[in-house]
Design goal:
The complex is a heterodimer of chains A (about 350) and B (about 475).
Chain A lengths: L12 H11 L5 H15 L5 H18 L4 H19 L10 H14 L1 H22 L5 E5 L3 H13 L5 E5 L13 H10 L4 E4 L4 H4 L5 E5 L2 E2 L5 E4 L2 H10 L4 E4 L30 H6 L19 H13 L7 E4 L6 E4 L2 E3 L1 H12 L1
Parallel strand pairs in A: 1-2, 1-4, 2-3, 4-7, 7-9
Antiparallel strand pairs in A: 5-6, 6-8, 9-10
Chain B lengths: L11 H8 L4 H13 L6 H18 L5 H18 L4 H31 L5 H8 L2 H4 L7 H5 L1 H4 L3 H10 L43 H4 L3 H16 L1 H24 L2 H4 L5 E5 L3 H11 L5 E5 L6 H10 L6 H5 L14 E5 L4 H5 L4 E4 L3 E2 L5 E4 L2 H10 L4 E4 L31 H6 L7 E4 L6 E4 L2 E3 L4 H8 L2 H4 L1 H9 L1
Parallel strand pairs in B: 1-2, 1-4, 2-3, 4-7, 7-9
Antiparallel strand pairs in B: 5-6, 6-8, 9-10
Helix pairs in contact in B: 1-3, 2-3, 2-4, 3-5, 3-13, 4-5, 5-12, 5-13, 13-15
Classes of the chains: A alpha/beta (about 350), B alpha/beta (about 475).
């Protein structure tokens, strides 16, 4: 990065990204990232391929480092980068564009002139997924879902609007994460469904196992779908997946295919993000005295993982919020817990995801 | 089954015989009524009849337009599927034929643009005959036909196809030229694809824009016109050729599956199987030529036990019409090959499972998620096998593999004649008790270890790939595809 020449006009890709997200609540992070990069391309006056790629990489890195959890975002930037690389590498097909330079301009023009189209396509694919929902949610079914996923909301809404399917929803609402306002927060989705006459029950994370006996199908959204077919999703999805598996309930993920991300997490702690969910602490000198009896036998650690003290609880709350702008903590749900991934091109088995990714990367 | 005045009840063989002499429309109606009356049932007879009927439909088809042929086949297909939706093989065959037509259409388009691009006039007929045979029988990842069968691939297989197209001008990259129906967003690059509206010349070449689009200069158009007409004339012949291969595949699939038998059955093993399936019987017989093992046969009461008994005794089902057409000598029972066969009632499956080395199941149809619909009792066996950690091998022809995703499992299960369970003359009983006779079981993919098809062995999680290789995404939902066409 040291060799990199500073841009003549310093384009603030992060600001554009956040503006795009703020202006359009329907926009997902990967698509916003793509659009931001397209705008970055528009402002720069690069002429060569390598210059563009370098420029792009720089913006991508800025963008990634600006958010606490860049997984979802990187799905978009990776896709964009791969698209450019594969298109630019393709030898011009004879007649139309004899020189590589022509191709480059052509692709650049295509991207710049169609920037807005990508977002619309992304929304179109969400609607497409929603239209599959009718197959998923059967008459009389009870659906368990969590989080503030736009796709899940669109899907449930589309089923609700058919009018012919009577179904109930159990919505796992995390009081901390969902207290934020917004069109796509969990509470808003619950209100939206209730307004359409769908009976919705809201439960806390802790009631999932209790409720599962009444559930026919679990549908969750995802922030990113990783290479082995697992998903990165809001904290709590993994345990829902585990419970659904234990109870033999079908566990479906709905996600647009632009959320596929080249990442192969081996376990929960193998994600390329910093999350301070497990925050081990020991008490201060004074507190130790009060719990002296328990901490005998050489144990100096007072609590294994969980803070029971008052200060701990309040810290826990703030920790979730402050772990990075407005991002929620996430976990990784491995593919063996997932029955199917519903994308705009149909239901994929988790193992089909790697193939889709391999197709664009290799 | 209604007895006609002739000795034989209407069924597959009489239907196949009547096909040649009957007008197509009457044949379609006849087949629909046979399907509805269950006089043609089970996968293989349905597949054979559908193929034969569609061959007649193609033969009768007058136009030269591939799109019209597609629509015609789809219309016929939809009527057949509506007649008996649970015989999923009918839909599979229809989709295979549709895929075949699409592919030939694409080949034409490719050949055209190729001829224009290279001005070399590559030997297209040669290229067709070279590649087409692979269609049904090969899923090699490097087969160019993979791209034809699977549009999601074509737009993204960039580097690989480039390497290929260097040596072979007519190879993969060309297959990307079905913009006319390429579904939106089937690949990850879908987001970036060109707008659907025809772009003007200043619009750049996206990957999705095939070579054809921007070569449409006036002179090129003329040449395309010529070659298109030339090609279109024999589209029917090509489709028929492909369908004959499909027919061959149906006939040979059991033997191809049986060729794998020695890999799966070892000496002195105890094999448990269920129902009287020709595929399984051939599979076991192939292994019996070289090895000695024991077969435990669950009898599949009350729907299939007669056929099971007959198979054990004579090697073939008593009423099997299809088989009677083939040479009788090849059918000998397993016992004649020196195999010990133990017949058990279905209720003994769990008890005996502890001693079984391998379970070999036949199937009615296989679904896109890796699950299968098989004769009732299959799930009991698969579950028992799971408990005992006994491997479950499912033997099936690829033609039984359906691209349908099982959203609602109850829909797949057909209920049969309750009289098989309790005879109707037992009036007292029938009056007081509800009797159900489900014909099929759904076996989820977790309970299956391996599928052995005519293409080889596959894990259940790999089946999605074979589905993608054999069916065009636009054909999966046959009723939906029409709407899109009409737009």
């Amino acid at each position: 990065m040291a060799t990199e020449t500073p841009l003549p006009d310093e384009f603030d890709v992060v600001a554009v990204y956040h503006r795009l997200l703020a202006n359009d609540h329907d926009l997902t992070m990967p698509v916003a990232a793509i659009e931001a990069l397209v705008e970055a391309m528009a402002t720069s006056s690069t002429q060569t391929v390598s210059e563009t790629m370098r420029n792009l990489e720089k913006h991508t890195n800025t963008l990634k480092s600006s958010v606490a959890n860049p997984i979802s975002l990187s799905a978009g930037t990776d896709l964009f980068q791969r698209y450019l690389v594969t298109t630019l590498n393709r030898p011009s097909a004879g007649v139309a564009s004899p020189s590589g330079a022509g191709d480059f301009d052509a692709i650049r023009n295509h991207l710049l002139s169609n920037g807005r189209l990508f977002a619309e396509r992304a929304k179109a694919s969400r609607n497409k997924i929603a239209s599959f929902g009718r197959n998923l949610v059967r008459d009389g079914a009870t659906v368990l879902t969590n989080g503030g996923s736009r796709v899940v909301a669109a899907l449930l809404r589309s089923v609700a609007e058919t009018g012919s399917v009577r179904f109930k929803v159990v919505y796992v609402l995390d009081s901390d994460a969902d207290s934020q306002e917004g069109e796509w927060s969990g509470t808003a989705i619950v209100a939206m469904l209730r307004a359409r006459g769908i009976p919705v029950a809201t439960i806390p994370d802790s009631a999932v196992a209790y409720s599962l006996g009444k559930i026919d199908i679990v549908i969750v959204g995802a922030e990113g779908v990783v290479e082995n077919g697992g998903i990165i999703s809001r904290l709590g999805t993994y345990q829902i997946g585990l419970l659904a598996k234990a109870k033999q309930k079908p566990f479906y993920v709905v996600a647009e295919s632009h959320k596929f991300v080249k990442l192969f997490p081996l376990n929960q702690y193998d994600l390329p993000i910093k999350q301070r969910i497990l925050d081990f602490k020991v008490g201060k000198e004074g507190e130790l005295v009060s719990t002296e009896n328990e901490s005998q036998g050489g144990y100096t650690v007072e609590d294994e993982g969980v803070d029971f003290s008052d200060s701990g609880v309040s810290e826990g709350k703030t920790r979730r919020k402050c772990s990075g702008s407005s991002e929620d903590p996430v976990d990784y749900t491995p593919p063996n817990l997932i029955s199917g991934i519903l994308t705009e091109s149909g239901v994929l088995t988790p193992s089909a995801v790697s193939e889709e990714l391999i197709k664009i990367w290799f | 089954m209604s007895r006609s005045t002739t000795i034989q009840a209407p069924g597959l063989s009489s239907y196949l015989k009547s096909l040649r002499s009957t007008p197509v429309e009457a044949s379609i109606e006849h087949f629909i009524s046979l399907l509805k009356r269950r006089q043609i049932r089970n996968s293989r007879p349905c597949a054979l009849a559908t193929t034969q009927l569609l061959i007649q439909v193609v033969k009768e088809f007058k136009g030269k337009d591939a799109d019209k042929l597609l629509r015609r086949i789809r219309d016929v297909g939809r009527r057949l599927i509506a007649a008996q939706p649970r015989e999923m093989v009918v839909g599979n065959i229809v989709r295979r034929v549709l895929g075949l037509i699409r592919e030939i259409k694409d080949d034409d388009a490719d050949a055209d643009s190729n001829a224009v691009n290279s001005d070399a006039g590559s030997p297209t007929p040669h290229h067709d005959s070279l590649n087409r045979p692979h269609l049904a029988s090969s899923i090699s990842t490097f087969s160019p036909l993979r791209h034809g069968a699977l549009p999601p691939m074509d737009t993204t297989s960039g580097p690989e196809s480039l390497a290929d197209s260097g040596e072979l001008p007519h190879r993969p990259a060309l297959f990307s030229s079905h913009t006319s129906y390429a579904p939106l967003g089937t690949s990850l690059f879908g987001l970036f694809s060109q707008p659907d509206t025809p772009s003007n010349t200043s619009t750049p070449t996206g990957r999705h824009s095939p070579t054809g689009k921007h070569t449409m200069t006036a002179s090129a158009l003329e040449r395309i016109g010529e070659s298109t007409i030339l090609k279109r004339t024999n589209i029917k012949a090509e489709v028929l050729e492909g369908m004959n291969e499909l027919q061959d595949e149906l006939e040979q699939s059991d033997d191809q599956i049986a060729a794998n038998a020695l890999d799966h059955i070892h000496s002195n093993e105890i094999i448990l199987t269920h129902t009287a399936s020709t595929s399984v019987q051939k599979f076991l017989l192939a292994a019996a030529k070289k090895r000695k093992f024991t077969v435990v046969h669950a009898e599949a009461h009350p729907n299939d036990h007669d056929a099971v008994h007959a198979t054990i005794l004579t090697g073939k089902k008593r009423d099997a019409e299809v088989i009677s057409e083939e040479a009788g000598d090849r059918w000998k029972p397993l016992t004649a090959a020196g195999i010990t066969v133990v017949l058990i009632p279905d209720s003994h499956v769990f008890a005996i499972m502890a001693r079984v080395n391998k379970v070999i199941l036949a199937t009615h149809s296989v679904l896109a998620n890796g699950g299968l619909v098989a004769a009732a009792g299959a799930r009991v066996i698969a579950s028992a096998a799971k408990v005992h950690r006994t491997p479950v091998v499912v033997v099936t022809g690829v033609y039984k593999l359906s691209p349908v995703y099982p959203f609602d499992i109850d829909e797949l299960i057909e209920y049969g004649d309750a009289g098989n369970v309790v005879p109707y003359d037992d009036g007292d009983f029938v009056d007081k008790v509800d009797v159900d006779n489900p014909l099929y079981d759904y076996v989820p993919p977790e309970l299956v270890d391996l599928y052995v098809t005519n293409l080889g062995g596959h894990a259940p999680s790999y089946l999605y790939r074979i589905v993608a290789d054999h069916y065009h995404p636009d054909d999966i939902n046959l009723s939906g595809a029409v709407e899109r066409d009409e737009k």
